[in-house]
Amino acid sequence: MFAGAAALAGCERPPEVTGGFAGASFTRGHVLRDLKSAPEPAVSRRADVVIAGAGIAGLAAARALRQRHVEDFVLLDLEDQPGGNARGSQVKGIGCPLGAHYLPVPSDDAPEVQQLLEELGLRKRVAGRWQYDERHLCHAPQERLFFQGSWQDGLLPLNGVGASTLAHYQRFACEVEAARKTGAFRIPQRSHVGLRAWDGETFAQWLDRQELTDPQLRWYLDYCCRDDFGAGLSTVAAWAGLHYFAARHGFHPPGADEGGEREQLLTWPEGNGWLVNALAAPLGDRFRGGQLVLRISERPNGVAVDVLDTQAQRVERWLAQRCIVALPAFVAARVVESPPAPLQALAARTRYAPWVVANLHLSGPLAEAPGMPACWDNVLYGAGSLGYVVATHQDLNPVPGPTVLTWYCAPGEAARPELLSAPWTQWRDRILEELSVPHPDLRARLTHVEVARHGHAMPIPVPGAISAWTAPPDSARMQYAHGDWAGYSIFEEAFTLGHRAGARS
Ligand SMILES: Cc1cc2nc3c(=O)[nH]c(=O)nc-3n(C[C@H](O)[C@H](O)[C@H](O)COP(=O)(O)OP(=O)(O)OC[C@H]3O[C@@H](n4cnc5c(N)ncnc54)[C@H](O)[C@@H]3O)c2cc1C
Fold it and tell me: If you placed Cys at 393, which of 89, 169, 274, 376 could pair as Cys (CB 3.0 to 4.6 Å)?
């Protein structure tokens, strides 16, 4: 995976590049893995509601509680900052994402998300029509692909492709349209039943059956699957491969009439960290970071949540009327005492994709060859990574200055041990080797690299998972709200699940 890195060792690399790891703490998370039994608590506290996990689902649950005037709650997370996979950061004063970096403009299927955006002032009704604040919509040019030695507009390979490739693009568009018309593809998914027809085989097998074999189409669809689910088209179920297109605006081959509807995206320098900060701002000290949930036990008169305060290094017990478990399924199954069967089953069948997100600080913008200018999203055909987004893309400053590129990579499940053991410099060298092809001046501009590793970043929607889906085992005292219950990982699903758990009386 790091082949070729050795070739970079030596005098080519600018010695002044500093860096290290950033983001989620493996050490804290793995305390739970290595713990034989949870120590007895030294301190006892009370709240009406405890929310375990302050990712998007936990934050949405907190907002919903407040909307119902339930103010006596705490939101606990093992990390010092809220947000989970959607957290943002800063490198040398420039905001940048550590994970999720955009939110497509939601359809009417996602009223909870629409209401949030309205509340945050991003969506307004003007002259009877909904409008989004342009400062937060991704500015043009949005995306480009480095293909056949130059940058082209959009991510679908087009430069110099033949008639046969174009015919495959057209046929795939027809298949997407047919899938879309079934009404089974929604965001968020209201029911998984309609997707079962596409759950019995991988996307690659389904494409084979449709004789959609064109290498450019296959590369593009594999890229989309790796980008959405952290695993390629030979791993994910057919419904997942179709989902991004069929649940949104379809697939538009060249020449198709898009009706002016290129997907509108909301994005910020710090990615979805902007939304995290907006959701966390009203919580004050009800958000408690550095709190590792060790055990959640349902009792006849309430719920007991035992937590390791990582700073004080002591165990505390929260006694609550109810608990919203906004933790990943594999963690929830470990900490919930006598976990209900649907939780055990979800944890047992979920395969998680690891991710690496590296923020690269550059002293100034990269030189660009004539042609397609730098975009927000920049992808390299055939690369092992998913390319990079430019954190300063939304910046209106006419004089470009220092910037941060956020490089994304879903290295595959087998790479998880390497995530733990490889030094940050190995990632730096791999990134330099890859991105120096379109950007020979990258070495001269790079000053600092911060690498965030997500060991169990997102559930991979493998064949069979949706057919085995069962609803979260909610009771009067315990509700479950994490993106894992959706079977695939996007803001809208996590937010809606969290909102519904918090809104329950
Ligand atoms: C690299 C990457 C890029 C992504 N890009 C996008 C994107 O652009 N757009 C999009 O819509 N979605 C994207 N996603 C998916 C999106 O980030 C998730 O769907 C969403 O943030 C999940 O929220 P969640 O609350 O369900 O889970 P999580 O983010 O997993 O939150 C769970 C929380 O629980 C905490 N926790 C875990 N164990 C414990 C414990 N024992 N005690 C206390 N706390 C604990 C964690 O620290 C975390 O904060 C991306 C995901 C990744 C990994």
Answer: 376
Of 463, 459, 460, 498, the residue nearest 482 (C-alpha): 498
> CB of 327 closer than 6 A to ligand 1?
yes
> Is ligand 1 within 6 A of the CB of residue 303?
no
Tell me: the pLDDT tens digits for 244-293?
Answer: 899 998 999 886 555 445 679 999 999 999 999 999 999 999 999 999 99
* CA 175 – ligand 1 centroid, Å: 32
DSSP code, position 183: T
State the pLDDT confidence band at 10, using cuts at 50, 70 and 90: very low
Q: Atom 52 (ligand 1): residue with closest C-alpha?
A: 99
Topology classification of domain 26-88+271-350+465-503: FAD/NAD(P)-binding domain (3.50.50)
The domains of the chain are located at 26-88+271-350+465-503, 143-261
Q: Is the CB of 55 under 6 A from ligand 1?
A: yes
Cβ 286 vs Cβ 61: under 8 Å: no
Residue 408 to residues 155, 228, 252, 265, 454, Cα–Cα distance (Å)? 15, 11, 25, 18, 11
* Burial class of residue 134 (count of CB atoms within 10 Å of its CB; 0-12, 13-18, 19+): exposed
Cα–Cα distances in angstroms (integers) from residue 423 to residues 38, 114, 356, 420, in the given order: 32, 42, 13, 8
Q: What is the pLDDT of residues 187-202, one digit of tens each?
A: 998 888 999 999 999 9
Q: How far is the CA of 372 from the centre of ligand 1 (A)?
A: 33
Which residue's CA is the nearest one to ligand 1's atom 49? Answer: 84
Report whether residue 32 contacts ligand 1, using a CB cutoff of 6 Å: yes
Among 454, 461, 469, 451, CA closest to 490: 461
**Ligand 1 pocket, mutate which of 63, 189, 489, 497 (most atoms under 8 A from CB):** 489
Q: Rounded to whole angstroms, how far apart are CA atoms 380 and 214?
A: 18
Phi, psi dihedral angles at 222 (to 5 degrees): -65, -40
The answer to whether the CB of 290 is under 6 A from ligand 1 is: no
Half-sphere exposure of residue 137: CA atoms within 13 angstroms, side-chain side: 12
